[in-house]
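[recover] target loaded
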C-alpha cells in the first residue's frame, strides 16, 4: 500500500501554488488552481469536472506533498498519461502535459509564474525569449522533450519551428540518434511516398537501386515532418498507420517494416480549417496534435517591449537576417 503525505494548513506563498490549464478537449482554455489537492473526473462533484465520456468518474488526483505535486491515477478505465507515458503515480514539474481520456492539460507552478513576471530570459536550444507566451511554449517543449509523444508545432514562417523541433530532439533520450527533416512542401507529390518510406529496386521508372526513405534514416531518432499540412490526402492513411502502429512499407515491397522513431510535426497553416475542408484527415490531425505548441509570429512583438518572439541565439534584431522556419 502506498501512503502519500499531503501538506495542509496555510498556503506558504506563490511558489506553493500550481495551475492546471486545459489545452485540448473538454473545457479547453479553462484553468484551475491547485493549492493542496485536486480531483479530476466526470463526477459533477470533482474539483475538475470534465464532460468527457472517456474520463472515469474518479479518474485522477493531484496533491501537494512534501516532495512536490504528485499525480495519481485513481483506477481509471483508460489510464492517466504524463507527457505521453501512462503512469500510476508521478511527480509533476512545470510544463508537464497531463492527459486523461481525450482531455490534455498543462501543469505550471507559481514559481514558474513568478519567473515569467520578472521577464527572466529563457533559452531553449538555439532560441531565446523573454515574452510570457514564449516562456510558456519553452516550458511546455522542455517537458515534452523527455517523452515519446508526437508534438505539433504551429507558427508562421520565421517563428523558429525547425529550431524548436531540433531542441526537442537534443533534449530527448534520442539525442545521440539521427534528427531527420522531411519537408512536405518541397518534395514533388509523385516522389513523396518513396522519399518518406523508401523504395525497392525497379519499383518505378528510374528506381535503379533500392533506397531507404526518411523514416528509416531517422531510425532510433526523431523525424521532423515540416509543413505537414501539405501532405497529400492519399499518403495520409499511410502516415496514420506509421504513427499508430509504427509500421510502413517501402514502395514496391509488400512486407512491412517496423520503425523506432519519434515524430515532431510543424505547420504554418490552420490544420483544423483543412480538416473542415476535407483536405486533412481528422483522425490524423488528432494523432499528430497529441501535444500542440504555438510559437508567436514576429509581428506580435511590435509595440510590446520585452514581448518579442523567440529568436535564434546567434541572430540579433536588425541584423538583416531571417530566422529559420
Amino acid at each position: 500500500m502506498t501512503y502519500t503525505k499531503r501538506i495542509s494548513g496555510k498556503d506558504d506563498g506563490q511558489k506553493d501554488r500550481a495551475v492546471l490549464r486545459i489545452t485540448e478537449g473538454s473545457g479547453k482554455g479553462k484553468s484551475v488552481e491547485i493549492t493542496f489537492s485536486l480531483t479530476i473526473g466526470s463526477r459533477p462533484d470533482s474539483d475538475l469536472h470534465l464532460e468527457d465520456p472517456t474520463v472515469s468518474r474518479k479518474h485522477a488526483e493531484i496533491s501537494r506533498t512534501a516532495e512536490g505535486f504528485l499525480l495519481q491515477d485513481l483506477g481509471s478505465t483508460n489510464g492517466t498519461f504524463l507527457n505521453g507515458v501512462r503512469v500510476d503515480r508521478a511527480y509533476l514539474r512545470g510544463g508537464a502535459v497531463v492527459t486523461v481520456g481525450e482531455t490534455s492539460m498543462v501543469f505550471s507552478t507559481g514559481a514558474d509564474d513568478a519567473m515569467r513576471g520578472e521577464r527572466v530570459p529563457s533559452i531553449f536550444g538555439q532560441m531565446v525569449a523573454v515574452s510570457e507566451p514564449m516562456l510558456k511554449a519553452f516550458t511546455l517543449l522542455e517537458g515534452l522533450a523527455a517523452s515519446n509523444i508526437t508534438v505539433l508545432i504551429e507558427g508562421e514562417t520565421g517563428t523558429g519551428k525547425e529550431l524548436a523541433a531540433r531542441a526537442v530532439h537534443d533534449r530527448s533520450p534520442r539525442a545521440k540518434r539521427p534528427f531527420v527533416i522531411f519537408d512536405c512542401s518541397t518534395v514533388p507529390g509523385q516522389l513523396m511516398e518513396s522519399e518518406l518510406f523508401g523504395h525497392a529496386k525497379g519499383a518505378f521508372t528510374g528506381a535503379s537501386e533500392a533506397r531507404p526513405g526518411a523514416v528509416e534514416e531517422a531510425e532510433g531518432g526523431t523525424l521532423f515532418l515540416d509543413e505537414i499540412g501539405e501532405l497529400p490526402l492519399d499518403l495520409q492513411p499511410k502516415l496514420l498507420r506509421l504513427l499508430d502502429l509504427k509500421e510502413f512499407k517501402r514502395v514496391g515491397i509488400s512486407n512491412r517494416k517496423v520503425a523506432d522513431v519519434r515524430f515532431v510535426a510543424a505547420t504554418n497553416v490552420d490544420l483544423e480549417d483543412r480538416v473542415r475542408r476535407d483536405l486533412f484527415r481528422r483522425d490524423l490531425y488528432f494523432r499528430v496534435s497529441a501535444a500542440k505548441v504555438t510559437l508567436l509570429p514576429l509581428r506580435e512583438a511590435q509595440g510590446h517591449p520585452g514581448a518579442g518572439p523567440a529568436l535564434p541565439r546567434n541572430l540579433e534584431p536588425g541584423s538583416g537576417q531571417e530566422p529559420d522556419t
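[recover] notes: Residues 1-15, 113-121, 301-309, 311-325 have pLDDT under 50 and may be disordered.
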